[in-house]
Design brief:
Blueprint lengths: L6 H28 L3 H17 L12 H8 L2 H14 L7 H21 L4
Helix pairs in contact: 1-4, 1-5, 4-5
Length: 122
């Protein structure tokens, strides 16, 4: 389904995509600040990201998950990223996704703060 018909919708989607990317990258910053080498960071990122993507609503609706996985999905930033991007792609205004934007911003702030706390030059 391709919704963006006007340049404004495309710009709004691009802004949502950049904002979401920053939120997800903050998890990578935290991983990089805690793990000593890239050799260990890559598998750890896979262990974190793949399950998060699987329960985020990207492939199938969260409502189809068992209740305990629905709770897990609601505490993961990728769920809000998927909701924001899917909604904006469908043509929803950004105001309809204030909760998603707030959650992504909160996760980004927390993960970035933790990354800056644990990061050490070596």
């Amino acid at each position: 389904y391709y919704a963006p018909d006007t340049p404004g919708e495309i710009v709004r989607f691009a802004a949502a995509l950049l904002f979401s990317t920053g939120g997800v990258l903050s998890i990578g910053f935290l991983i990089a600040s805690v793990v000593p080498t890239a050799r260990f960071a890559q598998p750890l990122a896979g262990i974190i990201f793949y399950p998060m993507i699987a329960v985020s609503g990207l492939f199938f609706p969260i409502a189809l998950l068992p209740p305990w996985l629905q709770i897990v999905a609601r505490v993961m930033p990728m769920t809000y990223t998927v909701s924001l991007l899917q909604g904006v792609w469908r043509g929803d205004p950004l105001a309809a996704h204030v909760v998603d934007i707030g959650a992504i911003a909160l996760f980004a702030a927390v993960f970035t703060a933790l990354a800056s706390r644990f990061f050490r030059w070596e």
